[in-house]
């Protein structure tokens, strides 16, 4: 079924059940808790605008009829961020996919541009993305800024709150939607906002000069050796890096495409470092009792599967392919105490919680952030694990809630203020922010 709405052109509205089911869902099923709560949620219609003017028209109509609007980029979020809790319209912005303007060290894009396409285009101009999620081939720039946090590159450039968004164009949800051009101190109201404070149609993001990246895996007998190695590498400013991702055994055994290169029973550190860094890496590995066991030269970067396809939240995906009771947490270990914290988690939970880390920077400080793989039994047990982590100084950003108030990472007071100003009828993605 297709309909035409005045000012929106033909074929912009989808009403058929298949489209509504497919485009009302994201990767919420990573969480058995969210899967139970969200599986029946569905939009009444999907609207796919192709210009800012069409977005504006749709917002006016929705405001007039008091219909909720939930934005969708590529729908790869993990917390049901893009799922319409109260039905209404899912506004699919994936057709706003034009790269608008290259600056010397930045780019202006429409929100639906895929990060993978942007990285490719940037590298042709001797530039590259600073940070991107491991889902970059599918994920959109708008979806990343409004639903993500950090990723590959974050070891050098930090996360979304570290100056990695320069400007956004925002439409408000009012009788006459306002078009805001936002930069500076108001920006955090729109970062990780789940589309609750406004609809972003354009973004300007800073870029880095292109680096030739080689990939390698360093193996260690013991996970703590892998942690010490990756701790030292994270702090070594003489080696440029994009990915430092240590995994305890048996996580590497989940990486089926790497079956021939993974060493049994060993902890593995997945690396993207600048071309020519192998001698320094080998020295550092040896110092910590490890060896470089797999190497992909820079000319093979982006040809076939890369090591970042196994890090960040892709690790959970590979684990899920092998065991069906897998879920995960998002845990900020402490730089000063991660050794004791890792020991404590292993002593307390054994193989129920499997650790891998993504070393990153946050507000300039190197941090051991982790997405532990959890062998799930019950919601109560999951909450016990979360409580244990929090009590022991390992801050959990709970990925088993769709609420920005209880699980989000954004700056809540500012978001709430802008919510009030920009969406007085609370029609944007209702239920995601109090
Ligand atoms: P969507 O899921 O479509 O949307 C995300 C949120 O933003 C939703 O609330 C949506 O309403 C809102 N939104 C989307 N576009 C707009 C807009 N234009 N204006 C206003 N609101 C909008 N995340 C990370 O941060 N780092 C990772 O490394 C990472 N790895 C992942 C690995 C896997 C295997 C999976 C499944 C997920 C991972 N994620 C990660 C989560 C997710 O993939 C990313 O955050 C991704 O950038 C989301 O982009 P998207 O286009 O799919 O957004």
UniProtKB/TrEMBL annotation:
<dbReference type="InterPro" id="IPR016166">
    <property type="entry name" value="FAD-bd_PCMH"/>
</dbReference>
<keyword id="KW-0560">Oxidoreductase</keyword>
<keyword id="KW-0274">FAD</keyword>
<dbReference type="InterPro" id="IPR006094">
    <property type="entry name" value="Oxid_FAD_bind_N"/>
</dbReference>
<feature type="domain" description="FAD-binding PCMH-type">
    <location>
        <begin position="39"/>
        <end position="210"/>
    </location>
</feature>
<keyword id="KW-0285">Flavoprotein</keyword>
<dbReference type="Pfam" id="PF01565">
    <property type="entry name" value="FAD_binding_4"/>
</dbReference>
<dbReference type="InterPro" id="IPR016164">
    <property type="entry name" value="FAD-linked_Oxase-like_C"/>
</dbReference>
<dbReference type="InterPro" id="IPR016169">
    <property type="entry name" value="FAD-bd_PCMH_sub2"/>
</dbReference>
<dbReference type="InterPro" id="IPR036318">
    <property type="entry name" value="FAD-bd_PCMH-like_sf"/>
</dbReference>
<protein>
    <submittedName>
        <fullName>FAD-binding oxidoreductase</fullName>
    </submittedName>
</protein>
